[in-house]
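[agent] plan:
  1. take the single chain provided in the ticket
  2. run structure prediction with default settings
  3. attach structure tokens to the ticket
  4. add a short note for the reviewer (M.T.)
[agent] executing step 1
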Amino acid sequence: MQLSLALRQARKAAGLTIREASQRLGVAYRSVARWEEGSRVPSLATLRQIAKVYGITITALMEQCECGSM
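[agent] step 2 finished; step 3 output follows
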């Protein structure tokens, strides 16, 4: 699975819409949408925030995807 799909699944598992996730993360709606469509990749610092907001660990998120170089 790609990181984009893992991010989408984690957000949905947390019961959040893209808008709610963007508000909690303090980023634009479009940023979250781009991460989930795979056209952008969040920084490591942002991944830490995402994991915290979604109630998961970065390790769990990375285990869901084929993120070999991350």
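[agent] step 4 note for reviewer: The mean pLDDT is 92.
[agent] ticket updated
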